[in-house]
Batch of 2 targets.
Target 1
Amino acid sequence: MMTSELEAIRAWFAYLAEARRGYLEAFSKLPVAELSRDRGASFPTLLDIFGHSQGALYFWMTGCARFAFPPQEPDTSRPPSLADVRKDENYIQTQIRRVMAELTEEDLARVVHRKAGEGSPHECDIPVREVLWHLVEEELQHRGELNALLWQIDVDAPVYDWVHWAHQVGRIQHPAPK
């Protein structure tokens, strides 16, 4: 079954959203002290790492969207709580679903401009397709990091692989019996 690149991107973002729910569920079973403990990772806490991924999704999706969506207004006077992260996740996933629904094959060639200083030492124009695949890579990178940190505290990480998800949603079929 051949699919277009746009269909593949939409599927990957649906899969990532489902996997992210697994992390929020795992986090909800942890004491606040575990969620807020500095682990010396790419970002200090489990919630900070997850929040960083949310920030990347938000930043890049605003550039990919053909519509404006309002910025999030986080309370930066305190570390994020699980409730804050859940609220942000609902908002971001709502915007991503809209971007994915409105995205066309032609949009994949459009460019997103990134100014110097916004996570990069240089200014550049990046095609939407490359931004979206970058977000998949970013998500997988930080998911692996979260898995390792959860395993260090003897917590089963919510490993949810693509093939398992694709079978569940009917994207991949079992072969016909011989």
Target 2
Amino acid sequence: MAAREAELLSIGQIAARTRLTPKALRIYDRTGLMRPATVDRWSGYRRYSQEQVPTGRLVGLLRGADLSLSEIRSVLSELAAGAEGASARLEVVLDGIERDHQGRRLLIRHVQSILRKEADSMFEIKTRAVPARRLMSIQRRRHGDQTDAFAAEARAAFRAHLGGLEPTGPFTLIFHGPVNDHDDGPLEAAQGGPPEIGPTDLIGIRTEAAHIEAYTTITRREWAYPAILAAYDAVACSPEVAQHPGSSLSCREVYLAEPGSVGGEDPICDVSFPLGD
């Protein structure tokens, strides 16, 4: 037992060997990312095994690459089953980083066009007439990181409710308020439904008035956050919307395809703003 205790490292010793700070190690203990081998029940002193040194070094390197704690946790979980799984997980993370980088670049290019008072050539703004529509509707309060899951659940609910019947309009996400890290909408999923489709406990039925809307069609690459902010800004600040403000209808994303079915340069949805009278 004494020999085993002698092999353990203090928090200062493992900090020196892994280039992690004691403060970071305490955080990783509290979050379950890297728990000590033992904690003295009286003093609270943390001690780590020699085998945890490589893990600590890996955590430090991945934090240096700006991975989140949840991303690192998923890599360590895969590593427990083998290096190949952990490497594959990092490939997924790299793909996400690249998409985020492209999205930031597109958004910043849009801001540059605003600063230079240039026309933004990335987004072509059009208008169209939308007839009155009978819509299946699910409305919820959701934050930005919950939007994709809500959309997937609503799509599945609409498909099940249609029971093989064809929808009479595209799947649409309607933003009745800001949706981001702090604001939760409300957010509405809607899709045209035939007359024989009625409401359920989950799905409401409503009619939306005929209207004119300004819109731009965006690709899968432009749809990814934060790039999509540029598309929203381009339509919201377009002459078409400026000349017809005050619509009682909310801005929306009108889907041309499901996100998982298209590539980066394929059209995925229209970012649309109904126009006032």
